[in-house]
Amino acid sequence: MLKGFNYPLTPKGKSTLNPPPPWYYSADFLSIEFWADPAAVAAVLPPGLDFNRSGNGHANALFYDWQFSGSNEEYLDPARYQYREFFILVDALFEGKAVAYCPYIFVDNDAAIARGWSQGYPKRLGQVFQTRYYAATGKAGPALAPGSKFAGSVTASGHRLAEALVTLKDPVKDMCVLKQAPIVNLLHTPRLAADKQDKPADHELVENVPHDVKIEQAWIGEGSLSLPVCHGEEISDLAPVRCGKGIRASLAYIVDDLKTLKDLR
Amino acid sequence: MLKGFNYPLTPKGKSTLNPPPPWYYSADFLSIEFWADPAAVAAVLPPGLDFNRSGNGHANALFYDWQFSGSNEEYLDPARYQYREFFILVDALFEGKAVAYCPYIFVDNDAAIARGWSQGYPKRLGQVFQTRYYAATGKAGPALAPGSKFAGSVTASGHRLAEALVTLKDPVKDMCVLKQAPIVNLLHTPRLAADKQDKPADHELVENVPHDVKIEQAWIGEGSLSLPVCHGEEISDLAPVRCGKGIRASLAYIVDDLKTLKDLR
Amino acid sequence: MLKGFNYPLTPKGKSTLNPPPPWYYSADFLSIEFWADPAAVAAVLPPGLDFNRSGNGHANALFYDWQFSGSNEEYLDPARYQYREFFILVDALFEGKAVAYCPYIFVDNDAAIARGWSQGYPKRLGQVFQTRYYAATGKAGPALAPGSKFAGSVTASGHRLAEALVTLKDPVKDMCVLKQAPIVNLLHTPRLAADKQDKPADHELVENVPHDVKIEQAWIGEGSLSLPVCHGEEISDLAPVRCGKGIRASLAYIVDDLKTLKDLR
Amino acid sequence: MLKGFNYPLTPKGKSTLNPPPPWYYSADFLSIEFWADPAAVAAVLPPGLDFNRSGNGHANALFYDWQFSGSNEEYLDPARYQYREFFILVDALFEGKAVAYCPYIFVDNDAAIARGWSQGYPKRLGQVFQTRYYAATGKAGPALAPGSKFAGSVTASGHRLAEALVTLKDPVKDMCVLKQAPIVNLLHTPRLAADKQDKPADHELVENVPHDVKIEQAWIGEGSLSLPVCHGEEISDLAPVRCGKGIRASLAYIVDDLKTLKDLR
Fold first, then answer.
1. d(CA D182, CA D206)
2. Cis before A103? omega within 30
3. CA-only gyration radius of chain A, Å
4. What DSSP character marks residue D190?
5. Measured between alpha carbons, how far is B88 from B86 in angstroms, rounded to an integer?
6. Which residues pair with C51 in a beta bridge?
7. With contacts defined as CB-CB under 8 Å, which chain B residues touch C149?
8. Chains with 3 or more CB pairs closer than 8 angstroms to A?
9. Distance (Å, whole) CA A100 – CA D81
C-alpha cells in the first residue's frame, strides 16, 4: 500500500509533501484592514457567496511567518516546512451569515501549497517578507511599543504585488478586535480530460475550521497597504480606497478538518 | 463568472496559475537508463499496475529544461512559465501492456506543479539543473559531438537527491531508441474533511496522451546516475544497481487531454 | 597554505567561490539597443570617463543565459556555476576613445557575483529570465526565423526592474553589427575601517579584455525595453527615450586578465 | 559624484547594495559548541594566526536569523535586507591572545555578502533555516522551556552542508557563558590582472569590533551538529569529534568599524 496525504504516495510515506492531519501552526502576523472598490469585491466572489453590503468593500491583507508541524516534529525540519504567506480576505455573506473569502494567496513553500489547495486556498508561489520582532531590539529590530513600524511585501512571478505597513499604538486589551469571521473558500480541482474540462473533480464552498486558536503579543495601530498594477495580474483591482487598523501579533492553531458548505457543481 | 483553469479563479482569468489547454512545450532533455532493485520498483507501483518482470527493475531518470506556453504567448513571460524538471519513470504493466509509472518528480515552478497535479505527476519543488548546449561551444559549452559530457542534478528540501551524467557517442539514427512506453500516473486528490480523509476526491490511474511529439538533435551514449540516501526521503530506494544508455535531445509536444484508465476508489 | 581565488580560502581550495583563471564562458543572449536621456547617461559615468556626445544617450541592455567553467569541468556542476545575467552598457569615452560602461548588472549566482566584482561589474542578485531557443520548436519554442519573438525580464529585491522583447528579422551576415566597444568598469573595493571609509582599497578604471570570442546563430531585428520606476532603485533614470535594433545570438569567450586604465584614488 | 558604499555606485546612492555604516543588526540565533580534529582546525588558519592548543579543536557553529538596517529604516524593506546566516568559528591565537576565526559562512542575501566581504567574512550563498520561537507556542512552535528543541540546517550549491539541534535546559543566568573571543578574519580581495593574480588588493588579518551588544532570552542546553561529506566542499573536514553546549538567544549590535591587525602581503 502506498502512503502519504499529498503527492507523492510512496511505500513508506516519507516523501509525501505533508503528513496526515492534525496540522499544527505557529506564526507571527501582520494584518491590515482596508476598503476596496465594492464592485471589485463583489466580482471576486464565487457562486453561493453574496456581497456584504454592510462592509462596503471591507477586506484584510495578512502577512504570516509560519512554522508548521505534523505529529513527528516536522518543525525541526524548517527547510522543508517553515514558510511565509500573504493573503487577502474580503467580507462576504453565506446564506446571510458574515464570512470572509480568500481570492488571492501566496506562499514560498510547496508543502504549504499542497495543504492550501486541500482547503480551497488558491495558493501560488511568491516571495513574502515581513519585518520581524526580536527580543533584542534596536534600530534594526523594532520593539513592541507605540510608534514601532513593521512592513510587509510580496512578489510573485517577478512582480511586486503588495506592500504594507503597520504602525503600533497600543497592546490589544479587548480580544474582540481580533475576531475573524469564518473563512469560506472555493475548493476547486480541475480535470484535464478533454471531455471533462468543464466538470471539475471538486467545485464547492468549504469552511475552514481551525481550533485551539491562541493569540499572544497582540498590538493594534494603523495599517497601510498598496496593491500596484502589474501585467498579467488582477489583484490590483482590489487596491485600497482607504485603509484602517493594523495589527501585529503571534498566533497558533490546529487544522484537522474542513466543512463542506455547498457543492457548486 | 470566475475564470481560470487552476487556482486562483478570478473575474478576468489573468491570475490563474495556468491558461486552459492546449498546453505547448519545448525542452532540452537528458535521459539516463538504469536498473533499480526489482523489489523497490514493485513497491512504488499503485494498485492496478503490475511489476514488469521482463524489465527486471528497468527505469529512466530524466532532466528537462522546459519552456511552456498556452495560446497567448506565455513563452514571452519566462519568469512565470519557464521551468526545470527531474523525474523517474519505472517500467510497469497495465492489463498486460507495457507502461511507465512516475513515482518521483521535481520542478522549480508553481504553474508546472499545478499542471502536473492535474495529470497525476506527483510534483514537489526542487532545484534542478542540467548542462546546456549552446551553438557557441568551448570549454564551458560542450559540443554535440562524441565524448561530450552533460550533467544533471536535483536538490529538494535542502538535500541533493540525484546526480547524473550523459556522455555522448553518436547521433541517434534509429528513432526507435527514443520510444517511450505510455506514461500512466496515479491521479490523487486528497480530502481534508475529517470524515473523508480516506475518500480522496480523485484516486485513479490515468494515461498521459501528449501529441505532435517532435524530437531533434538526439544523441545517444552512456548514462550514469546516483540517488543518494537522504533523511526524510525515499527516492534512494530506487538507487541504480547498474546504468545503461544516456540520451541528450530536444523535444516538443502538446498536451490537451488525459485518459482515465481505472478508478481505484 | 590556504588556496582559492575568491573567498573562502581553504586548505584544498575546493570550497572557493571560483577556480583561478582562465575562466571559460558560453551563453545565449539578447541585446536591445536604446537611447536614454543624455543627462542620465552622463550622470552614471565615473570620473575619468566622459559622456560620448555622438551617442546622444546611446546604450544597450543585455540578457545572458551563461554557462561557466574553469579548467576542471565546472560546467558539469551547473547547480553551482550556471547562471543568468542582465546588464546595461552606456556609451562613453576614455581619453577620447569609444568605450562602454556598465552602471547596473544583476545575476542569480554567487560565483558570478565574485567574478564580476573582480572585474568591476557592480553585480547584485536578481531573477533574470529570457525566452529560450530549442531545436525542437513550436508554440512554446520560437524558431530562429523572421518574426520570432524572444523576451527577457529581471527582478531584484522583489521589484521588476526591466522587461524586453527582441523580434527577429534576418540572420546577421555582416558581423560588424555585433561589434562592441571595449567595456570599461569602475573597480571599487570599499574599506570598513572607520578612518578609511573614504579610502577604498581599489578605485580604478579597468578594461575587460576577453579573448577567443565566438558568435554563432546571430539574428538581428527590432528591440524594445522598459525600465519601470521602483522604490529604492535608480535604474529607471535610464529609461529608454527610444529603442533600436534587437539581437539574439550565442557567444563564447575566455577571461583571464584585466587591464588597469587609471587609478582614481 | 557617484554614491554608495558597495557596488553599484550611482548618482543618488539608492541602488547600492548597502548604505554606509553604522550598520544595525537584530537576530535570533542558535550556537552549537563542538570539537573538530585539531589538525583540521590548524589547517584552516591563515598566516598570522596560531592553533590554540588549549582548545584542542574547539569551535562553534552558529545559525542567525538576521534583520539589518542602516540609518534609513532599511528594516522596513525586509525583501532586500532580512537574511539568514550560518557560520563556523574556530579557536585560534593572535600574538598569544585567544581569538575566533571564521573559515566558512553562508547567507541568503546579496547585501549581506557585500557587508561580509568588507569584514573578511568569506560568505557564499546558501539556504539557511532555523526553528523559530513564537510567543504563541504549541506543537509547531517550541516554548522557551526545558526540553524544547530548535534545529538548524544549511544547503549550498545544492548540497546539505550542516544540520544542528539545540535542546534547551535552563535560562542563562551567568552571561559569561555567552562570551565570545574577538573574531579575526582574513580580509582578502583578489586581483584578476594577469600579472597581479598573486598580489591581492587586500590580504590582511582584521578584527571585528561590533559594539552595543545586547543579548536577550538566552537559554542554554545541549548542542549537536553534523557536517556531512559533500563533493566539491571541504567544510566536512571540520566534522565534530564531539559536541558540547547549545545556546538559543536573541542578539543586537552595531558595526561601524574594522581593525586591521596585520597586513599579510
1. 10
2. no
3. 19
4. -
5. 7
6. C92
7. 73, 76
8. B, C, D
9. 33
Cis upstream peptide for D171 (omega within 30°): no
β-bridge partners, D150: D166
Q: How confident is the model at residue A182 (pLDDT cuts 50, 70, 90)?
A: very high
Enumerate residues 145 to 174 of chain C having a beta carbon within 8 A of any beta carbon in chain D: 157-158
Residue C175 in contact with partner chain D when CB distance is under 8 A: no
What are the chain C neighbours of D106 within 8 Å (beta carbons)?
none
What pLDDT score does A32 carry? 98
Cα-based distances in Å from D240 to A14, A22, C14, C47, C193: 28, 36, 20, 51, 34
Interface contact D78-A28, CB threshold 8 A = no
Predicted complex ipTM: 0.97
CB-based contact A26 D131, cutoff 8 Å? no
Contact B24, C136 (CB under 8 A): no
Q: pLDDT per residue over B12-69, tens digit each? A: 999 999 999 999 999 999 999 999 999 999 999 999 999 999 999 999 999 999 999 9
Residues of chain C with pLDDT below 50 are none
CB contact A192 to D (< 8 Å) = no
* A contacts of C229 (beta carbons < 8 Å): none
Mutate to test the interface with A, among C160, C161, C226, C229 (most CBs of A within 10 A): C160
Chain C partners of B144 at a C-beta cutoff of 8 Å?
none
Quickly tell me which residue has 556531512 as its cell. D228
pLDDT tens profile D182-240? 999 999 999 999 999 999 999 999 999 999 999 999 999 999 999 999 999 999 999 99
Residue in this structure with the C-alpha cell 510608534, named with its chain if needed: A147
Question: What are the CA-CA distances from residue A114 to residues A21, A56, A108, A202, B118 (Å)?
Answer: 13, 33, 12, 15, 13
DSSP class of A139: T
* pTM reported for the whole predicted model: 0.98
pLDDT for B55: 94
Q: How far is B4 from chain C (nearest CA, A)?
A: 20
Q: Give all strands (DSSP E) within A23-79, no chain letters.
A: 23-36, 50-51, 58-69
CB contact under 8 A, A252 and D140: yes
Q: In this complex, do B153 and D155 lie within 8 Å of one another by their Cβ atoms?
A: no
D82 vs A212: CB contact, 8 Å cut-off? Answer: no
What is the 3-class SS of chain C, one letter each residue? CCECCCCCCECCCCCCCCCCCCEEEEEEEEEEEEEECHHHHHHHCCCCCEECCCCCCEEEEEEEEEEEECCCCHHHCHHHHCEEEEEEEEEEEECCEEEEEEEEEEECCHHHHHHHHHCCCCEEECEEEECCCCCCCECCECCCCCCCEEEEEEEECCEEEEEEEEEEEEECCCHHHHCCCCEEEEEEECCCCHHHCCCCCEEEEEEECCEEEEEEEEEEEEEEEECCCCCCCCHHHHCEEEEEEEEEEEEEEEECCEEEEEECC
Instruction: With beta carbons under 8 A apart, name residues in chain D contacting C21.
Output: 192, 194, 197
| DSSP assignment letter at D139 | T
DSSP class of D20? P
Angle value at C-alpha A87, between A82 and A92, nearest 5 degrees = 140
CB pair distance less than 8 Å for C80 and D232? yes
The answer to whether the Cβ–Cβ distance between A14 and B259 falls below 8 Å is no
pLDDT recorded at residue A160? 98
What is the Cα A101 distance to its own chain's centre? 10
Interface test mutation site (partner B, options D159, D226, D230, D233, max chain B beta carbons within 10 A): D159
Cα of D201 to nearest chain C Cα, Å: 7
- Shortest distance, CA B159 to any CA of chain D (angstroms): 5
Q: Phi and psi (nearest 5°) for A50? A: -110, 150
Strands A83-94 and A58-69: antiparallel
Cβ atoms C112, D113 nearer than 8 A:
no
Q: Read off φ and ψ for residue C166, nearest 5 degrees.
A: -120, 125
